[in-house]
Automatic annotation (TrEMBL):
Secretion signal span: 1-22
Key words, A-Z: Signal
Provenance organism: Sphingobacterium hungaricum
Name of this protein: Outer membrane protein beta-barrel domain-containing protein
Keyword check for Signal: yes
Superkingdom of origin organism: Bacteria
Lineage: Bacteria, Pseudomonadati, Bacteroidota, Sphingobacteriia, Sphingobacteriales
Amino acid sequence: MKKLILSTILAFGLLASTQAQTVSTTPQSSANVGMAPIKAGNWMVGGSVGNIGYSFEGKSFGISLSPRAGYFVADGLAVGAQALLGLQTQDEQENVWNYGIAPFVRYYFPGGSSASGRFFGQGDVGIEGSNPGDGVSLKLGANVGYAHFVTNSVALEVMAGYNYSKATVSGVDNSQNGLGVSLGFQIYLPGQK
């Protein structure tokens, strides 16, 4: 009889403990960060994982990868540099591989923002080379975008804007301009306090 009572108590105890451990969670899709990630002295590291564009003059399609790092010199104002790595296909011509570096300035607008997202503008001026090709070319960009904070230190971004480049490919000066769209992410790291 003692064994039956002890077994019943033990069975109810196990049943109660398994019911208490059921936890239901949902993935985090946004974080209320306010101004914390874009304060002066913080760092940002990340980039565009896919930049897709179409050139009007050359009738070409391009895709690139642009890792970047920046430092916030003031609240909402970051300066930094980004690498340029890309592929461009052209009508009836050999594919062109691009590479380069471009310093940038990014400003996060205070108006129109929410606790979990910020609009920003970014301008960059740099140099790039290509294979095939010789010499370096001028690269300019003016973009606007939106950063949506998934956590306190990670944001998903979308950018759209105008890009211009002037290159020498196979001895011919070639300037191109067009619109581009990029998707990416940034990791915001706190600076020393």
